[in-house]
Amino acid sequence: MEEVQETQVQLSIRAEEANEGDSHSYANESNQSTSPQTRKLGLWIRIGIYSFLLLSGQATATLLGRLYYEKGGKSKWMGSLVQLVGFPILLPYYLFRKKKIKTENNQNTTTNTNTLPIQSKKPSMLIVASFYLVFGLIIAAICYLYSVGLMYLPVSTYSIILASQLAFNAFFSFFLNSHKFTPYIINSLVLLTISSVLLVLEPGSQKSSKVSKGKYAIGFVCTVGGSAGYGLVLSLTQFFMNKVIKKESFSVIVDVLLFQSLVATVVILVGLFASSEWSTLRIEMNEFELGKVSYVMTLSWTAITWQVFSIGLLGLILEVSSLFSNVIGVLGLPIVPIMAVFFFHEKMNAIKVMSMVMAVWGFVSYAYQNYLDNQSSKNDNPITNSSP
Fold first, then answer.
1. 362 occurs within a structural domain
2. For the chain, what is the mean pLDDT?
3. Where is the signal peptide (predicted)?
């Protein structure tokens, strides 16, 4: 009798343990099913925040840059300098990276005491420094060309022309990174080219920009040249990561942005002093239509908002890709012409509207091709589909 009671007690205990195990496993399954959704929601929130920083920084900096010239600013080198001078904001990242590397090394030494680390062959410092030097020189030229374009063109025309950087990016990537010209890419190139040509043929464009015909042509050519240079830098950066560094990481992107900005800032400072424009800055500040304080604040906030743009750019590169950040930047370009109507009372005639529509159409075609490329890469690598 006692043995029967003992067996019943044991069976009841096992049943309770089984129920507890089932409840724990159910809880774990529910947590596993909800955690990817939570991480995905957090990812989209971060993408939204970084996109807002990129778009707001880009639009505000462009409008402030035009305000500088509209109210009496005349220094092209100063207009170039404010695009880069805030780069030291990236320096705190190196303190964070140093701590992260130290903790990772401590974890590796404790967990993998018997295994030897696999070391990949790194490129020489001379080659890396040469690329940084080339990047910096090109960026300095781009900032100067953009400054000239913003000085001589209406900000709406200037912003629409900048959409052509996608076409130049595709063109240079064809030669440097073996990208293929698909029908959607060709459609994008044609639309963006026609969009820029329409602005050249726009009647009364010189009158609307309050500059001579020659200066308008110079501003147009410089803006197109700056867009071509930006597309070249994007393609060279991808080539640098794939062929030289042979890895694409957030740390490499920060290194490229920081060192190219350092080189470009030094080049622009040399140009500022060599051109003697620095000697006229005090006179320029005294004659600024909005006053001395507004002069300083305009330049300061232009530099700050360009760095807000850089933070959004880096964030999107970290969360998604460099290509996605470039596409979002081009998507935000139509914001500036709309805001220019209210702030600078620029006219949006039929040709400008048609040019903007074609630029957006070209952007959509380009973005759709990259969407197809991402989908095909996910199908080829099904493991990536399971990652949050």
1. yes
2. 78
3. none
Residue closest to 362 by CA, chosen among 194, 123, 179: 194
Q: CA–CA separation, 172 vs 228, rounded Å?
A: 9
In a domain, 236, yes or no: yes
Query: Which pTM value belongs to this model?
Result: 0.78
User: Which structural domain, as residue segments, surrounds residue 69?
Assistant: 48-99+124-376
3-state secondary structure of 86: coil
**Listed residue (250, 245, 253, 248) closest to 120, CA to CA:** 245
Q: What's the number of domains the chain is made of? A: 1
Half-sphere exposure of 192 (CA within 13 A, CB side): 29
Nearest to 152 by CA among 229, 226, 83: 226
Q: Using pLDDT thresholds of 50, 70 and 90, give the confidence band for residue 382.
A: very low
| pLDDT value at 299 more than 90 | yes
Residue at token pair 């501003």: 219
For residues 34 and 324, the model is more confident at 324
Is 385 within the bounds of a domain?
Answer: no
